[in-house]
């Protein structure tokens, strides 16, 4: 049962204390989970071996019970034939088989109880393993979020707001100068020269329209 004692010590260990002592806590946490996973796999192998032995014991019980029943029939047949010597031999082997059968049954019952205990331990360990796996996922996510927040804060701290404002002010001054230059240029555009001939022609056409009306 050394495997289960080791796993129990691991799942009951103070994870926070281990992480406090680690240079890289997340790496330590990952290594911790890998070791726990290996131990759980060993526990599964131990259960498989236990179930195999239990099945072998059940087979042994069945075979021994069959031998006892067979010797009983042989003794009955020998008595019917008047062969007392053969009957005694068969009865002797029957009693021996029944003694072994009782022992095998006791061993089988003990094995079954042990199997139940192992399954209960594994169920508890798997539940704890699932809990720790989820907790690891949460901790890794929180660590990542905290790291991103630190990087964001560092970027904000390194940003020079005064320099940016001055830069925008320089651009604004430049745009204002361009606008002033454009306004000054428009002021010096000469007014259009009137075409007198065109104006007279317009007046004549207007007079014709009035006469026609």
Automatic annotation (TrEMBL):
InterPro entries: PspA_VIPP1 (IPR007157)
One Pfam match: PspA_IM30
This protein's record includes keyword Transmembrane: no
Coiled coil (UniProt feature): 94-128
Alphabetical keyword list: Coiled coil
Similarity field: Belongs to the PspA/Vipp/IM30 family.
Stated name of the protein: PspA/IM30 family protein
Record lineage: Bacteria, Bacillati, Bacillota, Bacilli, Bacillales
């Amino acid at each position: 049962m050394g495997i289960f004692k080791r796993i129990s010590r691991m799942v009951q260990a103070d994870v926070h204390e281990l992480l406090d002592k680690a240079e890289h806590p997340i790496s330590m946490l990952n290594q911790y989970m890998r070791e726990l996973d290996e131990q759980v796999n060993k526990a599964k192998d131990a259960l498989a071996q236990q179930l195999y032995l239990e099945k072998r014991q059940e087979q042994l019980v069945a075979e021994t019970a069959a031998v006892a029943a067979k010797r009983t029939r042989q003794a009955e047949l020998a008595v019917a034939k008047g062969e007392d010597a053969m009957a005694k031999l068969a009865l002797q082997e029957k009693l021996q088989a029944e003694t072994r059968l009782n022992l095998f049954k006791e061993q089988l019952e003990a094995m079954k109880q042990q199997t139940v205990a192992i399954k209960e331990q594994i169920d508890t360990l798997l539940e704890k393993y699932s809990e720790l796996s989820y907790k690891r996922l949460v901790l890794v996510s929180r660590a990542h979020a905290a790291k991103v927040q630190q990087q964001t804060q560092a970027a904000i701290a390194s940003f020079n707001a005064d320099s940016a404002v001055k830069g925008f002010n320089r651009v604004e001054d430049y745009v204002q100068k361009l606008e002033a230059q454009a306004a000054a240029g428009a002021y010096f555009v000469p007014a259009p020269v009137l075409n007198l001939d065109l104006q007279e022609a317009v007046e004549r056409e207007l007079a014709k329209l009035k006469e026609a009306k």
